[in-house]
Amino acid sequence: MDSEEFLDIVDPEDRVIGSAPRHEVHARGLCHRASHVLLYNARWEILLQRRSLRKEFDPGRWDSSASGHVVAGEDYLTAAVREVLEELGVSIPPDRLRWIGKLSPTGKTAHEFVAIFLGPIDHPLHPSRREILQTGYFSLSWIDQWTRQRPEDFAPAFLAVWEACRDGMIENLAR
Fold first, then answer.
1. Inter-residue contact 60 to 81 (CB < 8 Å)
2. 4 with 21: CB under 8 angstroms?
3. Where does the record place the Nudix hydrolase domain (predicted)?
């Protein structure tokens, strides 16, 4: 997204208290919002993306299937659907994404409240070359082992997302 997008600034209860340009929000460490989407295939493998080397934050690191800021005036689900389309070239109906939970802002999440969504993917991908270096489907056990052995391969926010939801992932996939 454009570096001058406006983001809602939120208080510790995730209530909007203003908005500011993205660069200012990050420079001042203001709390804001992001959505992360974990998509899975018919074999229950999770789609991960490796971030473009041109990305401002965490270039070349593995991340959620799709993720990004919730822009000013947008809700978490709308942002999740938009990011899947922008990053993966897939239009996914909002009712296909299941709300998993929300992380509170920390340094690991770049001061973001992070909403986590889980959904099936059965469409061909058309990844944005500007956003994504590569994609891959990985088993839950492989991701778990990989994140524990080589956390430096992953964006810090993804590690927080994975840690928060990995224990309930199989249960959520089975529903």
1. no
2. yes
3. 30-160
Supply 57's token pair.
Answer: 């934050």
Question: Could you tell me which CATH number the domain at 6-174 has?
Answer: 3.90.79.10
Q: How confident is the model at residue 171 (pLDDT cuts 50, 70, 90)?
A: low
Structure tokens at 29: 């460490």
Residue the block writes with tokens 């080397």: 53
**66-69/6-10 β-pairing:** unpaired
Instruction: Tell me, letter by letter, the H, E, C secondary structure of 107-124.
Output: CCCCCEEEEEEEEECCCC
* 1-31 pLDDT per residue, tens: 444 799 999 999 999 999 999 999 999 999 9
Beta strands in the chain, from DSSP E residues, in sequence order: 6-10, 16-21, 32-40, 46-51, 62-63, 66-69, 98-103, 112-120, 132-138
Which contacts of 74-81 are long-range, i.e. CB under 8 A and separated by 24 or more positions?
74/8, 76/33, 76/35, 76/102, 76/115, 76/117, 77/35, 77/115, 77/117, 79/33, 79/34, 79/35, 79/115, 80/35, 80/36, 80/37, 80/115, 80/117
pTM attached to this predicted model:
0.91
Q: Which two structure tokens, joined as six digits, stand for 147?
A: 């994140």
